[in-house]
Amino acid sequence: MTDAITTEIIRHGLLSAAEEVARNLCRTAYNTVVYEIHDYGIGIHDASGDVVADAPGIAIFTRGNDYGIKKSLEFLGADAMRPGDVYLLNYPYWSSAHTLDPLVFAPIHDGSELIGFASCRIHVLDLNQKDPGYVLDSTHSSQEGLVFPATRLYREGEQNTDVFNIIRFNSRMPERTIGDIQAQVSACVTGVRRTQEIARKYGRDSLLDAMRAINEHGEKLARIGLSKLPKGTWTATDFVDSDGVDRETLVKLTATVTVTDEEMVVDWTGSARDVRGPINLPRGQTEALSSLIFKALTTPDSPVVAGNFAPLRVITEPGSVMHAVPPMPTFTLWTGLLAGEVILKALAEGMPDLVPACSGGDVCSMMGLGVNPRTGDAWQEATNEAVGFGATRDADGEDGIMHLSEPGCRNNPVEVLETKSPMIIDSYGYRPDTGGPGRFRGGVGVSRVYRFTAPATGICLVYKTRTNPWSIAGGDEGEPNRIVLNAGTEHEVVQGGSYNHLKAGETLANETGGGGGYGDPFTRDPAAVAKDVRNGFVTASAARERYGVAVDTTDFTVDAPGTAALRAAGR
What we know:
Elements: H1 4-28, H2 32-35, E1 40-46, E2 51-55, H3 59-76, E3 86-89, H4 92-95, E4 103-110, E5 113-122, E6 151-155, E7 158-159, H5 161-168, H6 174-202, H7 204-227, E8 232-240, E9 251-259, E10 264-267, H8 283-298, E11 312-315, H9 335-338, H10 340-350, E12 365-371, E13 378-384, H11 414-420, E14 423-430, E15 446-452, E16 456-461, E17 482-485, E18 493-495, E19 498-502, E20 507-511, H12 526-535, H13 540-547, E21 551-552, E22 557-558, H14 560-569
Parallel strand pairs: 10-11
Antiparallel strand pairs: 1-2, 1-5, 3-4, 3-6, 4-5, 6-7, 8-9, 9-10, 12-13, 12-16, 14-15, 15-20, 16-19, 17-18, 17-20, 21-22
């Protein structure tokens, strides 16, 4: 048995290895979504596929990597995996994501013995899906691009040229797509080497003992966290705007959460079935998003390890929007970004003091593509936008930060977008009055306005525009997200998820939602309201109407008599 000090040294060595994998990836990737936004999931796993160390990126990716490696082990068998092999998996129902989020992983051997895996998942640009950029309206998995079911990119260290040729001849952007996949390979090889170095330094048995101990300790921490939660069963429902095909029909997400002394059960029974469009989730992603919320409640202060999720059980119905089965389309995975807050909505019924109100509720991604007149080359760039976070029992929600599904991510800077594409950012800033009023207010969203200097396609991935971010304990709801084309002109259009063909000079505004409020707004400290008006988060008129606070806008002080009269009159 490895002693505790050596185990801790090995644990930090594995975490360092995962971070080096991430640095290697960001240095070599072709795609700004990877090296600017950190749209990746990276892990070091034990021989059964359970993660023992990760590098923060998209939280649901790392747990999805576990699922994909385990499915690959079932498919191929551990004995078929040889030193020097590197695999590509993007079959959605195994990989836990859509086809453009391929999982690349490599077995780690010490001598001939399999001791673990290194994994790296990113978003690549094109694998011959039916539409360039993103698919919003597929009805069958065959429309969603090339599929690789745990296919060898490298066989015992030798490149499998046939696979790369298939990709090269079936991609609209082959150089950047293959470049990104090779960056994933390089990253995984780094993880393999660093883990092997740990095995050589401390001994194979010490490393394997440490991996077991890491996950056993992770489970103990999770059970301690679980023991502190209120016990009971609660149900909540929320909606995705549409499935991309039946554009007028809201898609129901229902979660029933049960917390006992032994486990937390997240049951998605009752969620929509027979969803035609591509918002259906592979089972692995449903497990991953449920895991994210469970970890936030039980072990928020420690790195991700598989043991953290031993007390979590996820129930789904095959054929539902939360458990896609072949050939259900899965390309637009926004359900996986929205569904986490359905769990929080259920928990807010039983533990409102422990969870926040709903955030703006979406990742609010905008992707542009076309031909760049400066170079004559095809271009494709994207960014996710920040939202306001929900308020809690003792704090305002954060203003304009990345959605809770992307805690390790950033957005794409203005300078990068303008340099690499024919887009100009006309304006970028907070959206006043979008945070839900309350004793503690929700954070406000942001607005970024793109002006296209050449004909282009603007793909908007925003799927919470038709329902408001929910509040807690008498707070008010936040304002929802929206996309506005050509604002202030006779051609203005307000919408959500969409595929837009734009002319030179046209504009697209990505306007994100604010978080829900917590508690009665008329009990908010008037000085805090005046500060919000001064900082541009709340307008003076909203301060009067929604908080009952009169603010002198010459010096941003509270008009005490006016406030007393407003609050006496009530809302």
